[in-house]
């Protein structure tokens, strides 16, 4: 018999749609099936990380006072390159399988040009997924770390409480999650209606209450068909900005961009 553990996630974001700003607080119990396939996937991820540790965002405090050629730009550039190489070699099938999810199509990994005057390029990764638990919210960051809960046993259905930044916010029929950490930005969108076409965007937001201004798109995913339950995640690694947004842009069946459908901001 499979045992089950629960991942407890808490998140707070600001949702913005049609000029309305709503503070959102969400909680979700995520069931992680503890079976041999998940444990095998955990081992694959751990083996990769043992050889290729996940790059850490630079601490710019270390630059202050240095009498050398090291600069914020140097550190940010190296972080972008290291993360791109880390993502290119990562076993994404195993990264999703450890959470009882599977990839829906290929993983799109790119090195994007510098979005602003900083001159620092940045990597992005986007994938579609199908999860055994429809309420589970996968992200790029979550897929690329070891799922420790898959190796832990609980008594009956007693929850293992872990805190994270998952934040399901339903706007205009789509469920959004925006997670912002040190040098990492993740967005996941799940559509809950009839088939439509659209794409994800992550970027910096000029947050001026009561508006959530999606001012500077950084990474834009490819156009995809979204049926009921379609779930896609996008993540970037950029260490020079603080306020972020996740947006969904809709398109006609011919591929014409029909504009912003919904967005949420990190602040």
Order of helices and strands: EEHHHEEEHEEEEEEEEE
Query: Structural class of the secondary structure composition?
Result: alpha+beta
Q: What is the alpha-carbon Rg in Å? A: 19 Å
Structural domains: how many: 1
**Can you count the beta strands?**
14
Brief account:
By secondary structure, this protein is α+β, with helices and mostly antiparallel strands.
What's the topology here?
Blueprint: E1 3-17, E2 20-34, H1 36-51, H2 72-89, H3 92-97, E3 101-103, E4 108-112, E5 122-131, H4 140-143, E6 169-171, E7 174-181, E8 184-191, E9 196-208, E10 211-220, E11 224-226, E12 231-237, E13 244-251, E14 257-265
Antiparallel strand pairs: 1-2, 1-14, 3-5, 4-5, 5-12, 6-7, 7-8, 8-12, 9-10, 9-11, 9-13, 13-14
């Amino acid at each position: 018999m499979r045992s089950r553990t629960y991942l407890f996630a808490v998140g707070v974001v600001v949702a913005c749609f049609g000029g309305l700003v709503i503070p959102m607080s969400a909680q979700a119990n995520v069931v992680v099936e503890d079976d041999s396939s998940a444990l095998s996937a955990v081992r694959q991820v751990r083996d990769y990380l043992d050889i290729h540790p996940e790059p850490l965002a630079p601490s710019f405090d270390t630059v202050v006072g240095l009498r050398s050629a090291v600069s914020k730009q140097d550190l940010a550039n190296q972080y972008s390159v290291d993360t791109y190489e880390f993502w290119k070699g990562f076993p994404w099938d195993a990264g999703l399988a450890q959470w009882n999810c599977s990839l829906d199509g290929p993983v799109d990994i790119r090195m994007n040009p510098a979005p602003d005057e900083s001159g620092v390029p940045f990597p992005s990764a986007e994938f579609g997924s199908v999860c055994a638990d429809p309420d589970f919210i996968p992200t790029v960051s979550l897929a690329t770390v070891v799922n420790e809960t898959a190796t832990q046993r609980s008594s009956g259905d007693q929850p293992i409480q872990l805190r994270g930044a998952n934040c399901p916010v339903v706007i205009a029929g789509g469920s959004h999650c925006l997670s912002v950490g040190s040098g990492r930005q993740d967005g996941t969108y799940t559509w809950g209606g009839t088939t439509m076409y659209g794409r994800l965007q992550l970027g910096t937001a000029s947050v001026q209450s009561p508006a959530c201004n999606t001012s500077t798109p950084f990474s834009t995913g490819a156009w995809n068909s979204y049926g009921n339950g379609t779930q896609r995640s996008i993540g970037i690694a950029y260490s020079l900005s603080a306020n972020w947004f996740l947006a969904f842009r809709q398109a006609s069946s011919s591929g014409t961009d029909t504009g912003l459908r919904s967005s949420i901001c990190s602040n």
